[in-house]
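Work Package 4 report. The design task specified in the project plan requires that, given a folded chain encoded as structure tokens, an amino acid be chosen for each position. We show below one input record used in the internal validation round.
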């Protein structure tokens, strides 16, 4: 319940007082977008960190109160036990203890049963409420290196899930031909790894063993069942909605020439202008002289040398056939080491 309240930005009212207490931004530089963005993000970060500290403080107080109530209960129960001396009294004490435990479990079940309706009410209130749209929450959000936010509420909430979020039932809404291709690729990948492991040391199972055919058939049946089992109607709606949101995000990024990156330490996204990002990279090169941009692509030259060396080692029988096959690079999957910036948004202060 706490998680859903944080996600929906429904925190106690004193958190809103905190946001109002911190001075709002009354002035932003008119002719310096970079400075205006920096000030806006600093203001957002200060309020967010203050709310997080306040939330942790409130939770610690709540946990201390629970521990005090638990200790008070134990003390009172010990006092009650000291009043009973004979066996009949002990039996009554055990019955009282059992009744209390049953009552506690019943209360827990009642609370758990009401959780679903509470979540639904919170989500409905969130959709109707206009006050939560501009409220700064405590959950991570993307770092927006832009003057204005080009994304709507649904798109921004989806981006706030971060790079570790996995969209649900992605393959279920794809065309059947794509699903069949994915099944074929997964079957080939999994089967080849299992086969290479079992035919190698220490198992040394022959490749023509019938167990591999059985495993291949079972694996294919399992993948077909996993991919083609019909989804529940509600799950299908969620999958379609998330796919539409993701498609709209991609269109905005492409049409506005934006760039999206994983931040260096925040486990969230950085979103900014691709042109300005390229200018920052160029300035970084000129200021540091740490990297040199190559005038030609050495990929084919390096790949040919690696293949030539492997052929030489195999020709002299210095490596075995399976080692040769494993080390042989795949031209379609290889790539050169390249410079890739992870924006350090934690260093904006």
């Amino acid at each position: 319940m706490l998680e859903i309240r944080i996600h929906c930005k429904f925190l106690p009212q004193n958190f809103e007082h905190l946001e109002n207490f911190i001075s709002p931004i009354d002035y932003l530089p008119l002719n310096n977008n970079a400075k205006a963005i920096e000030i806006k993000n600093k203001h957002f970060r200060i309020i967010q960190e203050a709310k997080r500290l306040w939330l942790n403080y409130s939770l610690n107080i709540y946990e201390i109160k629970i521990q005090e109530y638990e200790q008070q209960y134990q003390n009172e129960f010990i006092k009650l036990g000291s009043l009973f001396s004979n066996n009949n009294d002990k039996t009554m004490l055990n019955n009282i203890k059992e009744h209390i435990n049953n009552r506690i479990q019943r209360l827990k079940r009642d609370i758990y049963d009401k959780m679903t309706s509470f979540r639904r009410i919170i989500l409905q209130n969130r959709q109707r409420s206009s006050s939560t749209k501009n409220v700064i929450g405590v959950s991570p959000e993307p770092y927006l290196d832009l003057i204005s936010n080009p994304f709507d509420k649904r798109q921004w909430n989806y981006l706030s899930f971060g790079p570790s979020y996995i969209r649900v039932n992605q393959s279920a809404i794809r065309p059947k031909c794509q699903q069949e291709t994915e099944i074929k690729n997964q079957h080939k990948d999994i089967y080849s790894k299992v086969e290479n492991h079992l035919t190698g040391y220490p198992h040394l199972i022959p490749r023509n063993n019938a167990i591999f055919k059985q495993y291949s058939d079972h694996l294919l049946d399992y993948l077909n069942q996993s991919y083609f089992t019909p989804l529940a109607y509600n799950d299908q709606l969620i999958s379609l909605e998330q796919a539409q949101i993701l498609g709209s995000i991609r269109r905005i990024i492409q049409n506005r020439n934006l760039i999206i990156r994983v931040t260096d330490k925040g486990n969230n996204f950085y979103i900014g202008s691709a042109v300005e990002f390229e200018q920052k990279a160029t300035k970084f090169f000129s200021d540091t002289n740490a990297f040199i941009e190559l005038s030609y692509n050495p990929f084919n030259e390096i790949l040919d040398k690696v293949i030539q060396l492997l052929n030489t080692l195999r020709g002299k029988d210095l490596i075995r056939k399976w080692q040769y096959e494993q080390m042989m690079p795949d031209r379609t999957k290889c790539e050169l080491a390249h410079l890739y910036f992870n924006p350090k948004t934690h260093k904006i202060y």
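The first helix runs from residue 2 to 7. Validation will be extended to a larger panel in the next phase.
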